[in-house]
Fold these 2 entries.
Entry 1:
Amino acid sequence: MKTPTYLLIILALWASILMSCNQKQTTDGDKQMNDLIDDLIGKMTLEEKLGQLNLPASGDITTGSVSSSNIAEKIKEGKVGGLFNIKSVEKIRAVQQIAMEQSRLKIPLIFGMDVIHGYQTLFPIPLGMSCSWDMELIEKSARLAAQEASADGICWTFSPMVDIARDPRWGRVSEGSGEDAYLGSQIARAMVKGYQGDDLSKNNTILACVKHFALYGAAEAGRDYNTTDMSRIRMYNEYLPPYKAALEAGAGSVMASFNEIDGIPATANKWLLTDLLRQKWGFNGFVVTDYTGILEMVDHGLGNLKEVSTLALKAGVDMDMVSDGLPGTLKQALDEGKITQQEIDQACRRILEAKYKLGLFEDPYRYCDVNRAKNEIFTPENRQVAREVAAQTFVLLKNDNQTLPLQHTKTIALIGPLADNRENMPGTWSVAGDFSKSVSLLDGLKNALGNETNILYAMGTNVVRNPELDARISIFGKPTKWDKRSQKEMIAEAVAAAKKSDVVVAAVGESSEMSGEASSRSDISLPENQKELLEALLATGKPLVMVLFTGRPLTISWEKANVPAILNVWFAGTEAGNAIADVLLGKVNPSGKLSATFPQNVGQIPIFYNHKNTGRPLAEGKWFTKFRSNYLDIPNEPLFPFGFGLSYSTFDYKNLKLSDSSLTAEGQIKVSVDVTNSGNYDGAEVVQLYIRDMVGSVTRPVKELKGFQKIFLKKGETRTIEFTLTEKDLLFYNSELKFVSEPGDFKVFVGTSSASTLEAGFVLK
Ligand code: BGC
């Protein structure tokens, strides 16, 4: 049926009334901002406008392969919008002074940095943080990071990194929150709140930058910077929610990712950066490229620098990190009519707005208080928080015969390439850290045990056997400490120490830079030489505890089968050694739960708990059945499932109850379960709730996390834990990408991991 013209006119009138109401909602603050920026833009030359889009690297800290030159001159000419990875309040103040005193329009610069898991007080790497499942702690760590960074002149962080990743070969799994969109979304929110607080213009809050938009975690074959390609329905349901959550929490900037989406690099992808981000999601902050993201589109095969810069601007990029494409080529593009003045003004305006919101127009030195830098960075209080947080991120993977906690030990043999290695405690992306001040495991055990216990240390082996590989992983001030002695000699020394001890603690795994950017691995097992060390130590017959340092899930099937106790400590930041000692010695009972599945071998990758059922699922408990979806040589089960993590105590789940057997669109169902601490230690447990939508218009995952609570129970204590489910929890994107729920049967699972749950069911009416 055709809509009558008068109806169309009424609708148009109504829309314009609504729009003007929206405009009326503009606050006084917005008006002041708009007036100031209108005035400024009116005065700016084209070069000055393009200058705002320019984000060169400072050359102070290296995070890529380009160093920008002549920065001071460019700042004087108004050709720089901000700088990143420049460290120290004095330097930042001096650079800001150039902009404020020697440039024509005196527009303040914005100073960014990769403050990824803490500033100088380093917290565990993000993957580790996510295993705490503790949103308060995560928010607090981001808050403290913001406090320290802002005390040293930084007002913008390139964090949170919220890329969902299901391929542990990709080194950057270490920088994100694992494989699950629900958990990832909660963490994204907590981090943005922590960084930005409730008022961005305060001198101790900083602007967050959600990255890498989008789908960077789905790089083919786990090889960094590689192509991604996925269906929209997967994108919407499984990969996009954490970005959206971070933006809903108010994140003021977004970083475009290196990868392509539907054949168009994110940096030039209008659908992504404008249609979805701005029009659908209502984002009104600014978009920055990733490091040389524009220039790289030449190699992607999209044209020369001028052409790709034009594409980027038109797609919705506002700021150019390091490429010199927007500032360097857009004048010509404008002259040729390829872009409009309005498009340049729009991008420039967004940068100026961010500076305004940070309070930089009011006081360009707002973040340059030298006293704050002296008093608020790397304080004993912050380090204490880092220690407490770190202990919450460790995942106890195995603990046969209650090998842990260590008790009544007179002599401990502390063996391994990561045992006395301060440089390799913080993990990747710790650009502001002073590694010499981090606490190694040897330091931590000595601090905790004093002279009571004898600690016999031996390195045992190098991190890797191959010196060329060692050189590749010994960068950014994190040498692995290559020992020239032979493997035989080093192992012999370690075995001698082990024989004299009551227990052996083996600090093994990856070094810091074996994960992170450009650190993909095709083989994610423990390096062979370290395995040989473990074999020799096991042969002594002494109880062996493996303290596993890693930035990714590893394939440690042999270790799981042979080593009695495994504590996964990721990279735990400045206070790593103290926190690990706290857990090894039982001062803290471990409670971390995996946010990413550990595969049995690389052939299982990608492996994640919320997969589809397929038309030929393998029956539960079976290994192999012909013509079912499985492997000939290995079961489908992972080595350690999502949500898994042991405690020194044990937790029993009983009496899963639903308040109703059906749910309506307006109603709710209470899900309750009794959890008992049935072991001998007080401790924390993460109670996890999953659902399964049994019948849908599209296939649905076999399980989806929809709630969790971290609780603390004294030994012997039982508590009834309650969750509320509403129809909102059952929404998903259907094949038309509409966010819907569909009536029918649902299952509810509650338990201690994704693989160990009680089960009930209800119907959505
Ligand atoms: C990384 C980003 C980072 C940027 C600036 C890039 O190589 O992909 O995550 O924020 O460098 O250091």
Note: The pocket of beta-D-glucopyranose is lined by residues 63-64, 114, 158, 211, 290-291, 517 (CB under 6 Å).
Entry 2:
Amino acid sequence: MALSQFLDALNALESSAVRAFGAAADEPALESARVEFLGAKSGQLKSVQKGLGALASADKPLAGKRFHEVKAAIEGAFQSAKDRLASLADEEASTDDGGPLDPTLPGTPFTLGRLHPITQTIEELTEIMGRLGFSLADGPEIEDEWHNFEALNIPFDHPARDPLDNFYVAAATLGEKPLLLRSQTSTVQIRVMEAAKPPIRVISLGRVYRPDEVDATHYPMFHQVEGLWVDRRVTMADLKSTLRLFATSYLGRDVHIRFRPSFFPFTEPSVEVDFQWGDGWVEFGGAGMVDPAVLTAVGYDAEEVTGFAFGLGIERLCMRRHQITDIRELFRNDVRFLRQF
Ligand code: DAH
């Protein structure tokens, strides 16, 4: 074979290989170009190489040199085509946000929470009593025996103080005063009166704790709304009209309310408060005229001022309003239930 013939074939091969690799638009195209030009068995470079042996010995050094140049050029073209496709793939991956914006696709749903029915009830009761001139007071859920019992005229040997009927806090060790989870919001009456002089007109709404067996109407944690009005000449008639207004504002005009004589250590006289529910009556809490012993315990002059107080169960009010028949529903936290309010 003539040298010029060999060199022409090399040049033609170089340019067609460089063109093919430059045009390869994806991996399969690149691979078939690689097989065509660089394939170890029947690639074009291989077959041109075979012509090398047929040249005159004197031509071989030049032909060999040229062959290696062309081989390097073709391999280089292959490598840069490979790099080009790889960086193209990287770019696509990093900018792939689902492609161009499609405004017809459904949006990401945005779920809005809502207030728990008990929280809703608390807010509404606060609003109703606010209109009647009662401002909001607060007290701790972990209490001492003075505020939960003693100042409320509940003596040391009273059955309400039985450790089995209360959640005492074990951390209160020897020498420290015993603490308990408050069993009633009446504690806040004492805290308010210790901190301020009459006239007093407050409500307090919050959690109380009792180790009750759980059933449809009992739960070891529940909420009470406590009211207290202390001033000159506050009477039982004020108590009655306030509670009636309270009941009809929250439950509706046609709700009947009933007082039954009862006993609480911190009120005298005391009543139990029933609201009509269906054909019958259900107890919602207690009330009465603040016992002079309580007024004295907080440093008030029991000859000067009188007061009424009441404490009602918030769960029961909420259940009566929404026809909920099992208190446990309120604390199961099943959204299918909670979503209804
Ligand atoms: N603290 C009482 C209870 O938990 C309810 C109560 C009764 C509250 C009479 C009062 C009251 O303020 O005057 O059962």
Note: The chain is about 40% helix and 20% strand.
